[in-house]
Amino acid sequence: MNTNYHDDNGDEVDSMLCIPFSRLIKSGFIITKCSDNTVLFVNVGGEAVKEEGNCAISVVADRFFDGGDVLRTDERIIDAGDMPAIYQSARFGNFSYRFSNLSPGEYFVDLQFAEIVNINGPKGMRVFDVFIQEEKVVSALDIYSIVGANKPLQVVDIRVSVGLDGVVVIRFQGVCGSPVVNGICIKQASRVPADQEEHEYVICSNCDTEIEISSCQKQNIRIKSTAKLERKIEELKNLCQLKSEECYQAWMSLTAANEQLEKVRMELDNKYFQNLRLDQAMGKQAAKLKDISSRYEYDKKHWLASIRELERKVETMKQEHSQLSSEAHNCADSIPELNKMIFGVQALVAQCEDLKLKFSEEQAKRKKLYNQMQEAKGNIRVFCRCRPLSKEETSAGYATVVDFSAAKDGDLGILTGGSAKKIFKFDRVYTPKDNQADVFEDASPMVVSVLDGYNVCIFAYGQTGTGKTFTMEGTEQSRGVNYRTLEQLFKVVEERKETFTYNISVSVLEVYNEQIRDLLATAPASKRLEIRQASEGFHHVPGIVEAKVENIKEVWDVLLAGSNARAVGSNNVNEHSSRSHCMLCILVRAKNLINGECTKSKLWLVDLAGSERLAKTEVQGERLKEAQNINRSLSALGDVISALATKSNHIPYRNSKITHLLQDSIGGDSKTLMFVQVSPSEQDLGETLSSLNFASRVRGIELAPAKKQVDANEHQKFRLMVDKLKQELRSKDDALRKLEENLHTAEAKAKDKDQLCRNQQEKLSEVEVQLASKTELSRQLEKQVLRLSRGMKEKDEICSKFQLKVQEPENKLKDREHTASMTLQHKEQSTYSSEKLQVTPNMVSVLKAEKDSPNIRSLSSTTRTINVESELLKGTDSLRELRRKKQIQSKGSENSFNSFLLSAPLVDKRVPSAESNKARQIDPSKAFSRITRSGTKSVTTGQRAFSDNNFNRDQVRGGKESSSRLKMWLR
Ligand SMILES: Nc1ncnc2c1ncn2[C@@H]1O[C@H](COP(=O)(O)OP(=O)(O)OP(=O)(O)O)[C@@H](O)[C@H]1O
């Protein structure tokens, strides 16, 4: 209903606003149409604002427009109390005014205030609400009840009253005991016909004639009927008393049943909580089991993957194993061949060793023969070389005093004047036409001796400008003995590299005024270089630079460095070179790879100072000193050679630096070669003769005078012998070379075979190692697989144990459930039997009338709780069954409604669902039907309100409280 509030001007106002009193007198609010049987309630409340004193308020309901049917309520006094304050507000409570029997039409309600003690009066007030309601007339009550103990319900008094708040209160009293009212039905009164109501006539029941009755008769009739009714009331009272007693009995029996039910309920509560605990435990177990099973599944998957991987690896390894086995078999098959090869190699090695032995022997023989030949030639050999006439000499017209007609035979003729000719005999005589290569060819065998471990000394002797430096050093275009010697040495070293290793180093010295100077030293020596004896037969100069050379390029660099160093400090190179001895020492360290023999030998290549006579030079001062030193050193050399010739006990090596340095290279096993350089010019005749005489003396040392003096036939014979020996040596050399070649080939073959054999063996060993590792790996993998399988078995066992453990509480739960259900059934049967008491219509009506009572609802709820608990018990199935049902539920299968209901309580506790709600909605009616056997809709609705939360402990407690409230009420 819409309620609109208006002020004096007819404007719409908020009812909650404070309306000034003066204005409120006239104001009102329109009520919309009231229909028949409408009751108007005006609810007024709030505060009246006043200055002092009390005021009265009344509500007037006035028919709209026609001004009739003015209805006025009693005045209510609003007491302002003793509040002295001006404009205090007096709060008054809510007034509810009721206007009944309103005629249909539109009304407006007005509030009217009257001042009791008129001082200033209230200033305003607030109106809460005005509403209308159709009046309901209670004409009949149907009460449905359970009295119990086969006692009928006798309702002796039913009183209905409507409170101020509009609540209908129905009171009724049973005769016997306290009936349990299960439902109340309020019906609308049937309307009495207006004509019967209006006229005071009695209609004859036989002839339907209206008989008008007088007021006296009417009075009598009323008295009689009143007496009759009183009698009837008395009878009914008696009956009611009886019924009350019966009801009391029934109530007593019901109380006993209730007590029993309470006990059962308590038991069920206990069972319920036990089940809850078990359920929780089971839930935990299930979660644990689920966790374990998920972990187990994960582990299983992991293991299976590992096993698969391992199996794959094992398979691969097996394949590799088989491959390696086949390779090993192949290798094993090739072993005989390898053995053959090894034998072949061994035979070759033996052959090689034999050849090496033979080679060593041959080499020794060769050396012996060579030495014999050298000895036959003489350990000191003298080659004479004559330079060509220089341009100056030619232009000056000097004649040649040298005769080379017998030079081939080593005879050099010197024309001493006129037809006189002096013959000098040398090992070789080189004419000016012979080039450097010719000269070195004869010297090279002696040079090579240094590689065989002999000390060798080659020196050039002669007058200044006769070509000593030219012979020893040469020029870039025409290399001398020094360069060619080293070239030859490297060549031989290369040839012998298979059998010998050589270490060659070079030192370059200069002896000037009996002082040694290191020409390879980068800085001048801090002290004088002296000659020391390092070991027996080996002298050296400590601190001297020994430049290691490995190729001819390095040799040339070293020689050039020495030559450059020699020029330093001298204005005239040629002059300086003429007055100093230049000495090149080649130190050779050799190792025979065949027999391991090591040798250390040296080769001296000496460019002596000019040998011109002091008398001729007629020099003085420094030059004289130089000349004296040169003469002294050259005569010391001559003395040494003389001592060697006479095989003197004392060889005066230490008389000069040069002989001291050459001590281990002149005499003994050492070989000496002397180049005597002469000038062809007649102006140098004296010096030439002097040099040739010195050389002849040197040569005479070796070739003993007796020997030298042998006749021509003997000499011829000796020469033939030498030739023969040479030929033999050559053939031996060839044979040796062939042998060497064979040896090299055999060695190469042996090496190849050896290498092959080694490779095969390495491969075999590799294959064996691989095979072993693969076998080991395979064994480990198999072990791992076994271990994993064992682990899986153990996990399976643990799982089955867990399942057994879970089954145990499940079985217990089942047993309990069974016991509980049996008990419940028993209880239900007993309850049902009590239900089967006779139910009179009155009882039914009482029960119906009580259907909305909270107490009744509580009892129903209690019953519902019992039912639900019993269903919970039924529902606590084994975990496996539950899981199966869950699965069925998740699949949306609804083929078994009962199984769903069974599973619902457990599921509902975790996941509330529409189905579970549905189940709950359906379930209470079933529960109620067990008790009332009549499933009315209202009862179902009432029960639903409770059953929505019936799994809650609080509600169980609530059920208990309701039950106790019911008991109290019944009492
Ligand atoms: N066999 C030869 N053929 C051509 N020229 C030569 C020969 N021997 C020497 N000569 C020339 O003679 C000159 C002098 O030679 P060289 O300097 O070698 O004499 P030397 O004996 O070393 O003198 P010194 O004692 O002063 O050192 C040089 O120009 C050289 O080229």
Automatic annotation (TrEMBL):
Residues 931-971 are annotated as: Disordered. Residues 931-953 have a biased composition (Polar residues). SMART domains: KISc (SM00129). It comes from Rubroshorea leprosula. Residues 379-701 form the Kinesin motor domain. This is Kinesin-like protein. PANTHER family: KINESIN-LIKE PROTEIN KLP-3, KINESIN-LIKE PROTEIN KLP68D. GO terms for molecular function: ATP binding; microtubule binding; microtubule motor activity. GO terms for biological process: microtubule-based movement. Gene3D superfamilies: Galactose-binding lectin, Kinesin motor domain. InterPro entries: Kinesin-like_fam, Kinesin_motor_CS, Kinesin_motor_dom, Kinesin_motor_dom_sf, Malectin_dom, P-loop_NTPase. Keywords: ATP-binding, Coiled coil, Microtubule, Motor protein, Nucleotide-binding. ATP binds at G462, Q463, T464, G465, T466, G467, K468, T469. One of its GO terms (cellular component) is microtubule. CDD domains: KISc_C_terminal (cd01366). Residues 300-379, 722-784 form a coiled coil. The keyword ATP-binding applies. The keyword Cell division does not apply. Belongs to the TRAFAC class myosin-kinesin ATPase superfamily. Kinesin family. KIN-14 subfamily. It comes from the Eukaryota. Residues 954-964 have a biased composition (Basic and acidic residues).
